[in-house]
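Reopening this one. Same input as before:
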Amino acid sequence: MNVGTIKETKEQEDRVGLTPAGAGAVVQAGHAALVERGAGEGSGFSDDEYRRAGATLAESPQDVVGRCDLLVKVKELLPPEFGFLRQDLILFSFLHLPALPDFADAVLTSGATAIAFEGVQKADGSLPILTPMSQVAGRMAAEIGAQLLKRPGPGRGKLLAGAPGVAPARAVVLGSGSVATAACRALMGFQARVTVMSPDLRRLAYLEELFGGHIATRAVSPVALAEELAGADLLITGVLVPGAVTPKVVTREMVRSMGPGAVIVDVDIDLGGAVETARLTSHADPTYIEEGVIHYCVPNMPGAVPRTATEALMSATLPYILALADDGLDAIRKDPSLAAGVNAIKGKVTHERLAKALGLPYTPVEEVL
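Same output, byte for byte:
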């Protein structure tokens, strides 16, 4: 099989779908690796490194896509790239189709097989490809929150750790998965006062034990969330419903109650965001102020640390890439975790939550195969 990757075109997205080591593994497995020239430069990988790994360099994304059977990307295709889709192509990347109806329509119209990184799910419920990016984003969220609270800027001029005789800043982490865990670890390093909120009491107990009782935990409800956010300095969201748009659980009134100069980092913005006042921003223009509160809502946060993020992503995706290269669509039949990530095949929506989000019929993946 021909496995290809192209340069990402999303604003300031410097990650790449295949590292030279990943391309080399594809070649060693008996397949061809096609890489657009310059695709890896943002992550610190030169064309010469790809060439030495055995990859074939192509002059344009069209050249790569026209020759490859499996296209591995990081982020979703943008409208100028929708024409790359075709029925005999397997697209393997972050898709976020519930929040991108135009992209979803292009995928379905083309008949391409679309497999979402964020949907690949093991029997125990873990998300092996999304997890490393969530860990990166969670750690970044704490760093970003700490910086935005400072001055110069509109932050309220607080140090997360406080000082002798001065209370630490108060941070609320919404969620209890990978983003929340990583954010808590970083916030603990900053010595902030942290409260984690989630409906999952088992995970809350785990986090309380993991951090030695140095964080507070609270079952989430509208009343409890409103109480915790009133006067809070920092909110980090890590809410995820796989295959669906993120529910808006933080209301405008809750945002207002945080007070001027507080900070929100909505890590869920890829799928619509968990905060009513959240709207997409970018690395070039990452923040805005609404209700007096600084909002950071960049959908591709790990793109700011492309070398780290790309290497972490490659470690997670490579086994699935090799399986797809070896067996094609049979890999989906063989591996239920990969099948869980299939969003569409031959114009059919094969993910139940996605079908509900788009208002389209759902067809089980095994029926299409």
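So the earlier flakiness isn't reproducible anymore. For the record, Residues 2-120+306-368 form a domain with the Rossmann fold fold (CATH 3.40.50.720).
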